[in-house]
Amino acid sequence: MIDRQSYVGRFAPSPTGPLHLGSLYTALASFLDARSKQGLWLLRIDDLDTPRNIIGAADNIVRTLDTFGLHWDGAIAYQSQMLADYQEALEKLLNKHILYPCTCSRKDLSTVYSGHCRDQQKSPESAYSYRIKTDEKVISFVDELQGLISYNLADYGDFILKRKDHVFAYQFAVVIDDNRQLINHVVRGADLLESTPRQIYLQQKLALNTPSYMHVPIIVDAQGYKLSKQTLATAVDLSHPNLVIFELLTLLKQNPPRTIQQASVRELLEWGIENWTPSKLENCLSISQR
Ligand code: GLU
Ligand code: ZN
Question: What is the C-alpha separation between 174 and 86, in angstroms, rounded?
Fold first, then answer.
């Protein structure tokens, strides 16, 4: 049994392609944070969004983490094997009468959902998603790097928990998963900062603990765009993993000394754990790859 008091962290990539430098950066940050606090570091494959999954990507990610010496604890968890958990939590919220079916199509909607289907009680004839009712509630939390973060839920409107195609939404699944896995420290990219208030809202509605959050900068290219498949970020180079780790430690502003540039992956990670000072990334939302 894992002790709830001790540190439990995780890395939760979506298998939509091989790891690029930006995703490995986040993996390394969460690994160093967990290991420097004698914590557990779990690996979860966020493979719920089946239309976006790429065959072989999960195995590829697992092999890449291995190559970079980022060894996780315990068995790999797969969201796709946890559907009964999400359904059970959905039913809990349904019983609280805070969910409702929505038949609106994407093109009917502006960015913030108007609550058009709010009073729809019966299951509609056509395909529908489930949305959760929100109100003008301000959710605040103190991020370990970004400080006090406050968002008004009204800025997002009632959001989707289960899509029309029956896929559970990321915002919802991640809350159920982090709770089941007893995650109490979430270290992830600042691109997810805006998602956190919705996740905290769901934790409150389900009476679950809220983990601590640390949102690390995202890596951007010379044009300022986030490295991603869309910007054709290339898969990380597996031929010299130690040079990549050295570069990532530099991008994490840990100032690794030049003398260890040629050190082995294991030595670099040991140095990284020993010297991990996340405060060097305070108030930093993005960092350029140079
Ligand atoms: N699977 C999500 C992603 O790859 C991250 C989940 C999380 O860290 O909360 O963007
Ligand atoms: Zn609707």
Answer: 10
